[in-house]
Amino acid sequence: MIKLNNKGFFLAETIVVVGIVAAILVLFYSQISSFYHNYERNSKYNTVEAIHAARNVKIFIEQNQQLNPVTNSINQNTPLIDITTYDFENVNYYNELIDLLNVKSVFISAYNINDLITNYSSYNIDASFLDFLRTQKVKDDKPNTYRVIVILKNGEYASAYYAL
Amino acid sequence: MNNKGMSTIELIVSFVIISLVAVGMFKSVLDLLDKISFYQSNVNITILKGSITNSVQEDLVHREFYRYDSCGTNCYDITFKDLTTRRFKVDTSSRTIQYGGISDKLPEDFTLSGSILFDTTKVSSPEDKNDSILRIFVPIENESLGIKSDINIVYQYDSRNTGDLPPLP
User: Residues A138-155: pLDDT tens digits?
Assistant: First the structure.
């Protein structure tokens, strides 16, 4: 009489191994996806074109020095001011400039925007703008230094800062 | 009989489970490869744009732009106030962008999607302020990925201030 002694558990073993491998793959894939989502989001921040635009707007502001009424009013209650349609002395030049740079919006804020990020709900800041501001968090503060933030028509963001 | 083994049904079920996991993995790997390819394309074109923009911008600022002249299709000679000239040219056949001594090839799948544009806009401004804006625009596109990655260089200057050189019309 042949004694069969098949100590199998093949199905259970397979299920357990497949379960472990699947869990590792799901974890791996979710990490790669999150890495890719971060890349996709950050690929819109501080791009070549956006930085170039921010620097050009900064050059204009530095040359024109007409933003004192605006910068003087930047405080805890008004940390961010939209100057896209600001009435500069040579506003026609300004409008041409931001049009050629494909700029949609221009903002001025203090150099340190940590308060703005903390209290964002009080201001009209959308999620992607807030995400960008979070990447601009600083640890120090520079007095009499302001930040020019530009948003391009293609959704790219950049900032440049200047000192009075 | 002491059968603690597997039956045909268990075998079939095991293979089905393994196949499902393999198909799921395969799709994920393909997705990942697509994303990596997209990422690589973007990185390559960003490096090219940065290189060209920085080189041109540095010259415009430090040598001071004076004028530009066409030297053919997609070709412009930029003259600076020190009377040196640098050629900006896009060669569509070799898919290269040349500026001065630099020649950068467009990454795979990126092409010039139109003619390059050199343009100056003049706006009436106070004496001590810039009154002109030079724009250099190179339209670049990746049709297969649907990405537009144009080079857009803008330079502000005062056209009335030409130093010892004759004023421009």
Answer: 878 888 888 999 999 999
At residue A117's C-alpha, the angle toward residues A129 and A45, to 5°, is 35
Chain B contact for A101, CB < 8 A? yes
Domain segments of chain A as ranges: 1-43, 48-163
Q: Which of residues 91-110 of B touch A (CB under 8 A)?
A: none
- pLDDT tier for residue B99 given thresholds of 50, 70 and 90: very high
Reported ipTM: 0.81
pTM for the whole structure: 0.81
| pLDDT above 60: residue A5 | no
Interatomic CA distance for residues B104 and B108, integer angstroms? 12
Return left, alpha or beta for B96; rule: phi > 0 is left, psi -120 to 50 is alpha, else beta: beta
Residue B17 · residue A15 · CB < 8 Å = yes
CB burial string B61-73: b at 16+ within 10 A, e below:
eebbbbbbeeeee
Residue B97 bridge partners (DSSP): B90, B104
Please calculate the CA angle A64-A69-A74 and round it to the nearest 5 degrees.
Answer: 115
What mean pLDDT do residues A19-43 have? 79
The verdict on a CB contact (< 8 Å) between B133 and A100 is yes
